[in-house]
Each structure stands twice: as structure tokens, then as C-alpha cells.
Amino acid sequence: MNTSLYLSSIPLLSLVLSSSAFAITLDEALKQAITHNRQIQIVRINIEQRRQELAAQKTRRLPASSATLIAGISPTRADVTFPNGVLGVYPGTGPIPGTDLKVGIPRHFSGFAFSTVGLPLTQQIRIGAGIEVAGLELEVSKTSRTRTTLEVAAQVRRLYFGLLSADAAANAAQSTLGLASEVERLAGQAVAAGVTLQSDRGEAIARRLRAESALAAINAERENLREQFNQVLGRPLDEPIDLVRPDLPCTATPATPAAAANKAVASRPEIDTGRLRIRQAQIAARAKRAEQIPDISLAFMHFGFLNTGNLVPSNFAAAGLQLNWEPWDWGRRSKEAKALRYQADAARLALEEIVQQVRRQASQAFRAWEQTRTDLEAAEAAVAAAEASMRVVRRRFEQQAALMREVLEAQATFETAQEQRVRALSARGTAWANMQLALGEQ
Q1: Is 296 exposed, middle or buried (0-12, 13-18, 19+ CB in 10 A)?
Q2: Which of 9, 229, 300, 413 has its CB surrounded by the most CB atoms within 10 Å?
Q3: Closest C-alpha among 358, 326, 207, 342 to residue 285
């Protein structure tokens, strides 16, 4: 995890917090977020769920057993009539039975049990396909975890750099407030001496009030960022923090937008997910075609009767092959298989679109990162020039060689340069976080 590329490229001054504040580097923040962030924890739970579903799918290869027991009192009497002579006619005996004989089960508590044990044979093809699909779903969940981790890491970086930018903005606002107070003092002295207008002093007062308001707004925004930062790290919202600037060397980045795009294609989890979805659709189509094969199982069946008298045998068992087959389905299976083939075609097109999108995001992020470097250099130069100009105008004003209006104009230029520098700092951090996300870097 590269943390110094942004920090070493800009001279940020962090606000000094209390000694009880939680001091943290960006590396530590990323590690804590990966461990404690609730979104990542939810994805981990989903992975365990998929793992259990895969294990459950594998049990379908084993013999399946079932048992049914029905017991109670029949609302009607079960009678069977044996006609005269149905069992034969014998010399000296005559017909058996000699007359129509009605035999039945008395209406008392009785029942029967039916149990089977079957080992699937031809069904193993479909079961194997189902296991493959479940395994691919587990892999999809893992790519989802990687994607969520990347997004959380990017969020941590943005908030971290946002806090650093807020620190820089607070320092700049404090400096502006000090300058505005000094200009207000000079304006008051000039009005008393009769060398400037009261309106200039009024404008100086207004600028001091605006500086106070801006500083309060920046402090409030930093508190908002601090709460968001703690939430992403899975910490209490009111936990104080102190950002630590690590002294680490810059690591190399892709040299060109094309190199950044190639790196993103090799690293982004969305592309792996797209490939897995294609494979899932292909396996599902294969399993659907296998449904045309009759289901043949090695089976053992047992019937047992309870308290039914001699009308039926108390036990009956059979072992052998069991066949279930739907020979005519009105073309349902072939249509379902064709639909799955269309699904695979759509998944291939979706993957091509994802690859193009990933390449475009990476190249755009790279160009944005390069642009923020030049913007920051320009902003730093503008601040230095405005500060030097402010010193010169103030000295001339003290020597009565410049008007208060010139001091106010120089002050406005300096304030604008300060604001542009803070915006450039914030944009620099955001661009780096976006580039790391686009490249698939945690």
C-alpha cells in the first residue's frame, strides 16, 4: 500500500491536537479499516455463507434417504371381497372360498411406514454442474470482497487527505485572519491619521469578519470529516484523531495512461467477476442439457404396515434401480438451454464493456493525477508571489508610499491564492485516491 506519494509531494502542516488524540498513519488507517470496517465484515460473512452453500451442494452426491410414517384411525372401513372360487376349485373341497367372502381392516389405530435410500447415478452430471456453479459463486463473493476492500481503501484515502487539506485550510484561514486583523489595525491608524477613508477601514473589518467565519466553517467541516473517518475505520464517532505524516519514499506509478490502463485490466476484480459470470452461464447451460438424461438411481425401498391384520403383509422391501424420466416436455428444456446460451453471450458483452470502462477509468485517473501536480505547483507559486507582494505593499504603506486600497487589493490576492492552494491540495489527494482505486491497488 503506497501512502507517501501524496504526502511527500505536498508540504502539509497538521493541526496540533491533544495528547489523547488517536495518532494514526495512512497505512495504519487502511489496516484498521480492512479489519474493522462493517461493509468488509458483511462481505466476509457472505463468503462464509457461499462456502457453506458449496459444502451443502457437495452432499447431493451422497445417498439420499427419506422416511414417511402415517398413523391414525381410518374414517371408513377398508374391505376387500374375495369372490366365490377365486382361490380355485378343488376335488372333494369345492370352491375356495365357498361363498363371497368380505375381509377388512377393523377401524382401529393403524398405519404404515415407507422409507427409501437412493444413490444418484446419472444425476451426478447435473450435481457436478451445480457444485461448479456454487464454487464459482464463492469465487464471485471473493472478488466482491476485493472490490469492497478497494472502495473502502479509496474512501479512507479521500477522508485522510480531506482531513490533511482541512488542516492546511485551517492554517491558511488562521493566517488570513491574522493578516486581516493586522490590516484592520493599520486601517484604523490610517483613518485616525486622516490618510485613508472610513470606507477602507469598513472593508478591512468586513474581511476580518469573513476570515473568522471561514475559519469556523473549516473547523466544522473537519469535525464532519473526522466522524466519517472514524465510521469507516469502525471506531466511535467521537474518537479524536491526529494524522501522522510518514517519511516514506515515493513509489513508481505507471509512466503513461496506457500503462495505467494495462495495470488496471490485470488487477481490477470486476474483470474477474465478469469472467466468472460467463463460466457460470456456460455450466448452467450444460446442466440444463443433461436434464434430458433419465434419472437413474440405485435404490432400496421398504414398506411396513402397523396393526392392519392379515389383509396385507406387515413388511415389503425391494432393492434395485429406480428410473424417473420426462420423455416429452414440449420443448421446455431446449428453450431453457437456449436462454442460458443467450445469458452467456450477454455476459461476454458485459465483460468487454467492463474492460473498456476499466481502461478508460485508469487512463482518466492517471491524467487527473498528472494535472493536479501542475495545478499544485502553480498554486504554490501563486501563494509565494502573493505573499511577497503583500509584504512589499505593506512596507510601502507604512512608508506612506502606497494607499490602503493597494493593501486591501494585495490582501485579496493573497487570500485567493491561499484558497486556490488548499483546493489544489485537496484535489491532489482525491486524484491519488481515485488512481489507486482505478489501478486496483489496496
Answers
A1: middle
A2: 229
A3: 342
DSSP annotation of 235 reads: -
- Between the CA of residue 85 and those of 95, 100, 293, 310, what are the distances in Å? 4, 8, 48, 20
Q: How far apart are CA 384 and CA 377, in angstroms?
A: 11
pLDDT class of 250 with cuts at 50, 70, 90: very low
What does the H/E/C string look like for 60-107? Answer: HHCCEEEEEEEEECCCCCEEEEECCCCCCEECCCEECCCCCEEEEECC
Q: Report in angstroms the alpha-carbon separations of 439 from 43, 143, 252, 361, 404.
A: 21, 15, 13, 9, 52
DSSP, collapsed to helix, strand or coil, labels residue 295 as: strand
Mean pLDDT over all residues of the chain? 82
Q: How far apart are alpha carbons 382 and 89 in whole angstroms?
A: 124
Q: Which residues of 153-184 are buried (b: 16+ CB within 10 A; e: fewer)?
A: bbbbbbbbbbbbbbbbbbbbbeebbebbbebb
User: In angstroms, rounded to a whole number, what is the distance separating the alpha carbons of residues 386 and 412?
Assistant: 9
Instruction: Give long-range contacts, CB 8 A cutoff, 24+ apart: 331-338.
Output: 333/288, 333/289, 333/291, 333/292, 336/288, 337/285, 337/288, 337/289
239's grid cell: 474518537
- Interhelix angle 404-439/257-267, rounded to 10 degrees, is 40
- 300, exposed or middle or buried, with CB in 10 Å at 0-12, 13-18, 19+? middle
pLDDT tens for 204-233 read 888 888 888 988 998 898 899 999 999 999
Q: Is the peptide bond before 246 cis (omega within 30 degrees of 0)?
A: no
Q: Which residues contact 157 (CB under 8 A, 6 or more apart)?
A: 26, 30, 429, 432, 433, 436
Q: Quick one: 100 exposed, middle or buried, by C-beta within 10 A (0-12, 13-18, 19+)?
A: exposed
Q: What is the DSSP string of 39-65?
A: HHHHHHHHHHHHHHHHHHHHGGGS-EE
Alpha helix segments (H runs only) across 194-268: 198-232, 257-267
Q: What is the mean pLDDT of residues 370-390?
A: 87
CA-CA-CA-CA dihedral for 266, 268, 270, 272, to nearest 10 = 40
CA 166, 172, 178, 181 dihedral sign is: negative
Q: pTM for this structure?
A: 0.74
Cell 460467463 belongs to which residue? 278
Say if CB 307 and CB 111 are below 8 A apart: yes
